[in-house]
Amino acid sequence: MKAERWDDVYSFENSPFIMEILTGLRDEKTGPISFRKGLVKLGRYMAYEITKTMEIERVPVKTPLEETEGVIVRDRRSVVIITVLRAAIPLMEGLIKVLEHARVGIVSASREKAPKFEIEMNYVKIPEIKPEDTVIIADPMIATGSTLIRVLEEVKRYGKAKRYVIVGVLAAPEGIERIKKAFPEVEIFVAKVDRELNDEGYILPGLGDAGDRAFGAPVKAQ
Ligand code: URA
User: Does some domain include residue 1?
Assistant: First the structure.
């Protein structure tokens, strides 16, 4: 289902199952085990939705009884998944269950403290990107969009792809606007577009810090 206001933004408010997964992720009582399981499930369903937008090929297939027509989702074989550490790890696990041929890139991106607020990328491992590839960038929370704009700039240095798709759980309208302004060609798949960002850059009503919910809050070394 396409979100009304933007081209190529897909959200799934009318999918009861995706909404049930989202409800579990939002619930503050959901612990890390169920939270990670929810992200894996959502990744899998988002991958199914993406395959609906991929090119297919009709092929002959012989059953034990006769020949008939079958389908191959050709583009499923040319996928690169970029995992933005750390909350995207379970999302990627779900995506790759459906997109099992995918080559995988891993990047870390974190925002520097005031006054610079620049995005630091300390770890970047990205495979060669080919013209037939669909590049899927997995990042659960599309908040300000700054991280994803920086990741897209980086990814584009590794070759030009056929399609660039961002997969997340929730997006804020502000983040979508910024990404679509910088990269109009990018497609966005999220369970839901939420209301807004608060002053600290959290999505409202949101689900909190996705990394902390999935893996626990980090502490400073002693
Ligand atoms: N990142 C998160 O984990 N949660 C938000 O609400 C925004 C960014």
Answer: no
CATH number at residue 120: 3.40.50.2020
**Structure confidence at residue 115 (pLDDT):** 62
- The residue type at 32: P
Beta partners for 203? 197
Contacting residues for 27 by C-beta, under 8 A, at least 6 apart? none
**Ligand 1 proximity of 43 Cβ (cutoff 6 Å):** no
Q: Is the CB of 25 under 6 A from ligand 1?
A: no
- Indicate whether 91 belongs to any domain: yes
Q: Which of 207, 212, 213 to mutate to test the pocket of ligand 1 (most atoms within 8 A of CB)?
A: 207
Low-confidence ranges of the chain (pLDDT < 70): 112-117
Provide the whole-model pTM.
0.95
Atom of ligand 1 nearest to the CA of 207: 6
DSSP-derived 3-state class of residue 103: strand
215 lines ligand 1 (CB under 6 A): no
Residue 112 forms part of a structural domain: yes
